[in-house]
Design a protein that fits this description.
This protein has helices at residues 2-12, 27-36, 45-48, 50-61, 89-96, 113-122, 140-153, 186-200, 203-209, 247-255, 288-293, 295-306, 316-320, 426-441, and strands at 17-22, 41-43, 68-72, 100-105, 129-137, 158-163, 172-173, 176-177, 232-237, 242-244, 258-263, 276-279, 281-282, 311-314, 324-327, 330-333, 341-344, 350-358, 370-377, 379-382, 389-396, 404-409, 412-415. With 447 residues, it is α/β, with parallel strands linked by helices. It has 2 domains: 2-212, 3-Layer(aba) Sandwich (Rossmann fold), CATH 3.40.50.300; 232-441, 3-Layer(aba) Sandwich (Rossmann fold). It has a 9-stranded mixed β-sheet with strand order 11-9-12-14-23-22-21-18-19. Helix 7 (140-153) links the parallel strand 5 and strand 6 (158-163). The termini are far apart.
């Protein structure tokens, strides 16, 4: 909410700000995009690699004459997989030489909060903590104690103090915040966040912190529009049920010759004229009544995939392609392409990064290729002895079975993992080439 508020305030002041989200999140970037008026891009060292993160940051920071770039971290400043912290928010800040505005939870401490800030300063990788914002402060007395302690012992200015404020809360559910598309008056909420953050924080000082970062060299930007005649038309489910797509994935498909056709899976009665189908993640479980009663689209998807049309499904897309889903005490029939049902549980069935290794050659991936992905799902397949062919062995994470992920059927690939096109540069080219091959030759790959 602090990031959303800062973005909203500066944009209303006429500044052009490019936002980034460290990590693999989909929902936070939706809110950051709404607040900035520009597409938010992820910076994830695990999925993308350090060099690719730097390249993406440089390229996208120079878009649309942006004067400022704001990166929202994830988890704690020093949290990450690697012990050296290279993939943490601090690691990204260190690589990009950006100052850090540290937001701390004030609720359970007073002067002792300075010890927390000092620890953040001392722990490697060391970064420039240029300011602190106290969050969810309980009283003016607590605020004064914390401010004096931090500024004396840490030599860092406290540039804001935010009390408990119910107007700065977005409802949450099992995968995080409610999405922008499902939130009534989302734009009004963002404007309000900007006003309240500006009331609680010294925005002039926060603006000056951006100047502590080194200037970026202006470089040529690759656009997301293909410059050649589109080879294929790829349909993309994009609506309230399916909304988890990295912008670079869609960009990569376009740059490889795909004309993207967005499809509303809740209301479209059939597929448009397309050569391939991309089913992303999201929240199909909250729209099962609409999805399951939309028989025309379900039947069309089933028939087109059976006939050999390439389809790539991630998490929510995998759920859409199964036989049945049990959720909320009801059972819903879906596309029936995958030979299992889906059940939901109260705790995550898979949550975190996936480390995968391709176990076979397929139209999608070569044997032996390592792939990094991210998963976050409360659902799991009810296999009931189903015979399946899988693309990957799971080295780290859960995937579909705990041991395998990436179910293969004809020209369909279905996975619980979300991959990032920057970390998997051959993915988009493969997708477009497969769709083009099937379109021109009418060949159905046997898997």
């Amino acid at each position: 909410m602090v990031s959303v508020g800062i973005l909203s305030h500066f944009v209303r002041k006429g500044l052009s700000v490019q936002s980034f989200k460290k990590g693999p999140d989909f929902i936070d970037p939706m809110w950051l995009s709404l607040a900035s008026g520009k597409e938010c891009f992820n910076l994830d060292p695990y999925l993308m690699g350090i060099e690719a993160c730097c390249d993406s940051f440089l390229r996208n920071s120079c878009r649309d004459n942006s004067r400022l770039s704001l990166i929202e971290g994830n988890h704690g400043l020093h949290d990450g997989i690697d012990l050296d912290g290279s993939d943490s928010s601090a690691g990204v800040a260190g690589i990009l030489e950006t100052p850090v505005l540290l937001v701390v939870d004030s609720r359970q401490t007073n002067r002792g909060i300075a010890a927390l800030v000092m620890g953040m300063q001392a722990m490697p990788p060391k970064v420039n903590i240029a300011g602190v914002i106290l969050n969810q402060v309980r009283s003016p007395r607590q605020e004064e104690k914390q401010k004096r302690a931090i500024e004396k012992f840490c030599n860092v200015p406290v540039v804001g103090s935010i009390p408990m404020d119910k107007e700065l809360v977005i409802p949450e559910r099992h995968l995080g915040l409610t999405t922008v598309g499902e939130t009534a008056d989302a734009e009004k909420f963002v404007r309000n966040a900007g006003e309240r953050i500006a009331h609680y924080c010294d925005m002039n000082t926060i603006r000056s912190l951006f100047n502590e970062a080194p200037s970026l060299q202006r470089i040529k930007i690759d656009t997301c529009e293909t410059t050649t005649y589109a080879k294929v038309r790829i349909g993309v489910f994009r609506d309230a049920a399916f909304c988890f797509y990295y912008p670079e994935n869609l960009c990569a498909l376009r740059n490889n010759g795909a004309d993207l056709v967005f499809i509303d899976s809740l209301h479209a009665s059939s597929l448009p004229d397309i050569d391939g189908l991309y089913l992303g993640g999201g929240f199909p479980e909250f729209f099962l009544e609409l999805l399951s009663t939309n028989k025309g689209l379900l039947t069309d998807v089933h028939e087109k995939v059976e006939s050999g049309m390439p389809a790539y499904a991630e998490c929510g897309g995998l759920i859409y392609l199964c036989r049945r889903v049990a959720y909320g005490g009801k059972t819903y029939s879906l596309a029936g392409l995958l030979p299992f049902d889906i059940a939901f549980q109260s705790n995550p069935a898979g949550h975190g990064y996936l480390d995968l290794k391709s176990r076979t050659d397929s139209p999608w991936f070569r044997k032996g290729v390592p792939v990094k992905a991210h998963e976050f799902h409360y659902s799991k397949p009810v296999m009931q002895g189903a015979e399946c062919t899988y693309q990957f062995d799971v080295i780290r994470g859960t995937g579909i079975t705990g041991k395998h992920d990436g179910l293969l059927y004809r020209n369909l690939f279905a996975s619980y993992g979300h991959i990032h096109a920057i970390g998997n540069p051959e993915w988009a080219e493969t997708f477009v080439s497969l769709a083009s091959d099937i379109k021109t030759k009418g060949r159905v790959a046997a898997v």
